[in-house]
Design goal:
Among the domains are: 56 residues, N-terminal domain of TfIIb, CATH 2.20.25; 202 residues, Dimethylsulfoxide Reductase, domain 2; 74 residues, no CATH class; 130 residues, Barwin-like endoglucanases (Beta Barrel). Helix 3 packs parallel to helix 16 and helix 16 packs across helix 17. It has 25 helices and 24 strands. It is 29% helix and 15% strand. The longest helix is centred in the last third of the chain and has 20 residues.
Length: 752
């Protein structure tokens, strides 16, 4: 009950605890957020959350700090005379209409482009409504953070299983031997494997006498827990996996599903030259070490292979992702409890509609970028080509959504310069940062605590099937727009209309109408269901709540609008700690959409890359190679403006082995110049005798303090931008993904 303090105090409300899912990374931890009078007073882990059970990393505690950050944008900005000034929403949309629409129309829309940043998949509003912007833009030039991240895994899944988001995840809670390659989930909290509390899950594996085999050039926090740690040369994981696959078959230790035996034999025949001995020099992993790993996997009752970023941001990312699945299949670990399994997304996905197992042939190489001829796959251009396309005049107008490509994409200095040459740029972003400083108009979304949340994408990747909805904790600021409405209004402006509330509501209704028609056309739709009954069931909801209700109710656990006792948004609201839908279950063949109705392990595009992989066998191993890294308190670039996460010892340093440092006259704390074919940076040296000699490591996401930004805290902890060193010329030819790790650099003492 509230009280009134007469004379000078206003009405005070009682403290309240609200529960929501953390939206900052893929772990999806449950939060208990205590707040009073619009201020967060404490954030702790939700011990009743069905998935995370109280686990929380340092990032999850800062949502209140982010909400209150004085540098977080709260009103639209327009660039005038080189400076950004605050304006009203109507003025912002009018400026976009006057500025970008003529530019788009002059090129018949082909000059427009869009960049989608990593936070898009962590936002319910953006997940559901950013597509409206793409459609209204009318251009096929879509870029995203995927091609500096997980795109090879998606491409491999599309070829093998018929859908890019049919991605096998490690059944970590039941496995007895986990081979973990190029991943550090104790710091990253997991990726393409949604699982809160990786530290607890890893410890549980060890407590049941399981094996944890980590393959990483550095002794990461995860590698330090390993029962076996191998430190290869970076970028050679595909060779290591090929040797495991070949050895399993040649020694008769494989145990595949009989239905896949012929396809796998065809694959292994193509891999015959990759033996533990033949790859040893190139990988830096001795043949006996490879055989020891194989012996541990074969001896395990429930083995599993899981690989992540260190394997995908290489020139062989798609091939490595394919070989992970080949090895799992040869071990009998694919689609098996304790192995690599497929989640069932409660919001539905392409592989939950009951259309499998047969689908069309998946092909690659149908489109390339105009300027540099890089591959365009899964409907997206590679970000490595963005600067090329701008400089060549193929892109004259750009929209960025929740992304900072100047810090996250290759050849950053060149891209930074290219952005300044655009005719018009619009950004949806909460900060005036290294990328949005180039924007003519910036549209700020509300904070995480002011919008609903549901992990639409990560339901495809969870190591356990769960569903958890979070309602907004705080109302929108006076005059602010919901994130979905920003997207919808921008879409109407791009389409030549006015960015009014009424126009946004029309976009919203159109999306809902499409979902209603899709539900009625589903093979799983009850025959008695009608459009009228669906509309009555969803009631007067609008925006993302209505769309989510439609998705969940027509999903694999849905109530089909009152036809059964399944899930609906109302049911999710009644369970603030989430709903546990059970452990993963075998889903092959129904999860597939392939011509054969089985996994296409011998897909021609994948087999065709084996010859290129063989060229790695003769690459010289001398010189230094750069790998990147992250820290537990850092989430790419956008969380560096929160003092609680960046205070203390500087984290943006270069790790190198003492022997490599001594050979170059360097010691702890010295400044070194690191150079590549793309550029150079100067950075402090930190020695680490657990990193492989010949390898240096610099974290990604830093490089703040440039003119025109407004990030007071980040500027004091600027660091250096590792992507100044990343060449844009080297990509995985199957997926278009940039090589962000394992490329060669020179290191020398910095001159005074």
């Amino acid at each position: 009950m509230g009280f009134v303090c007469l004379g000078y105090c206003s009405v005070m409300t009682e403290p309240t605890t609200s529960f929501r899912t953390c939206p900052l990374c893929e772990a999806t931890c449950g939060l208990a957020i205590e707040h009073q009078d619009g201020t967060v007073t404490r954030i702790r882990g939700d011990h009743d959350d069905v998935f995370s059970q109280g686990f929380l990393c340092p990032k999850g505690t800062v949502l209140g700090k982010f909400h209150d950050d004085p540098d977080r944008l709260r009103t639209p900005l327009i660039k005038q005379d080189g400076r950004h000034v605050a304006v009203s929403w109507d003025e912002a949309f009018a400026a976009i209409s006057d500025g970008i629409v003529p530019v788009l129309d002059r090129s018949e829309r082909d000059g427009g482009a869009m960049y989608l940043g990593n936070p898009v998949v962590h936002s319910l509003d953006l997940s559901l409504y950013s597509r409206a912007i793409t459609v209204a833009l009318g251009s096929k030039k879509v870029f995203s953070a995927s091609t500096v991240d997980q795109r090879p895994r998606e491409v491999a899944s599309g070829l093998i299983y018929g859908s890019s988001f049919t991605i096998p995840v490690p059944d970590i809670d039941r496995t007895t031997a986990l081979l973990l390659i190029g991943a550090n989930p104790l710091v990253s909290n997991g990726s393409l494997a949604t699982a809160p509390d990786w530290p607890g899950r890893i410890q549980a594996l060890l407590d049941r006498d399981g094996a944890l085999i980590v393959v990483d050039p550095a002794r990461t926090k995860t590698a330090a827990k390993a029962t076996t740690h191998l430190a290869p040369f970076p970028g050679t994981d595909a060779l290591f996996l090929a040797a495991i696959a070949s050895e399993l078959v040649s020694t008769g230790q494989h145990r595949p599903d009989d239905a896949d035996r012929a396809a796998l034999e065809q694959v292994v025949e193509a891999l015959a030259e990759f033996t533990p001995e033949s790859v040893a020099e190139a990988t830096g992993i001795a043949a006996e070490q490879t055989r020891d790993v194989i012996a541990q996997l074969v001896a395990a009752e429930r083995p599993c292979v899981y690989a992540r970023l260190g394997t995908t941001i290489t020139p062989f990312g798609t091939t490595a992702s394919w070989l992970v699945d080949v090895v799992n299949a040869l071990l009998g670990a694919l689609d098996a409890p304790g192995g690599a399994m497929f989640a069932t997304n409660p919001a539905g996905s392409k592989n939950t509609r009951g259309e499998g197992p047969h689908g069309p042939v998946q092909t690659l190489g149908r489109r390339q970028t105009k300027a540099s001829g890089m591959p365009i796959e899964l409907g997206e251009h590679p970000v490595a080509a963005l600067a090329d396309e701008i400089e060549s005049g193929n892109i004259t107008a750009l929209i960025t959504v929740a992304g900072n490509p100047v810090l996250s994409c290759p050849d950053s200095e060149r891209l930074d310069g290219a952005l300044s040459g655009l005719e018009f740029m619009v950004s949806i972003d909460c900060y005036l940062n290294e990328t949005t400083r180039h924007a003519d108009v910036i549209l700020p979304p509300p904070s995480h605590l002011q919008k609903p949340h549901f992990d639409v994408a990560f339901g495809n990747l969870a190591v356990r099937n769960v569903a958890n909805y979070s309602a907004p904790i705080f109302p929108l600021d006076d005059g602010a727009l919901a994130e979905w409405e920003i997207c919808a209004r921008l879409a109407t402006v791009l389409g030549g209309g006015e960015g009014t509330r009424e126009a946004a509501e029309l976009v919203d209704s159109t999306i809902a109408d499409q979902l209603i028609r899709g539900a009625l056309g589903s093979s799983q739709c009850p025959p008695e269901l009608s459009e009228e009954r669906i509309r009555v069931a969803i009631g007067d909801r609008t925006g993302p709540d209505r769309v989510l209700d439609l998705l969940v109710r027509s999903g694999p656990y849905g109530d089909w609008f009152g036809s059964n006792d399944g899930l609906s948004l109302d049911v999710l609201v009644e369970h603030p700690h989430g709903i546990d839908l059970g452990a993963l279950e075998p889903r092959i063949p129904e999860v597939l959409l392939t011509p054969s109705g089985r996994p296409e392990f011998a897909h021609p595009s994948l087999l065709g890359d084996v010859a290129r992989l063989a060229t790695l066998l003769t690459e010289p191993s001398s010189g230094l190679r750069l790998i990147n890294r992250r820290t537990l308190r850092s989430n790419n670039s956008w969380m560096h403006n929160l003092e609680i996460l960046v205070k203390g010892k500087p984290r943006c340093t270069m790790l190198m082995h003492p022997d490599d440092a001594q050979a170059r006259g360097l010691d702890v704390g010295d400044r070194a110049t690191v150079s590549s074919s793309a550029g150079s940076v100067e950075i402090a040296v930190e020695l680490d005798d657990t990193i492989r000699p010949g390898v240096v490591s610099i974290p990604h996401g830093w490089g703040h303090g440039v003119e025109g930004t407004s990030l007071a805290v980040a500027e004091r902890h600027a660091g250096v931008n590792v992507n100044v060193l990343t060449p844009a010329t080297v990509v995985d030819p199957l997926s278009g993904t940039s090589q962000l790790t394992g490329f060669r650099v020179e290191v020398a003492a910095a001159t005074a």
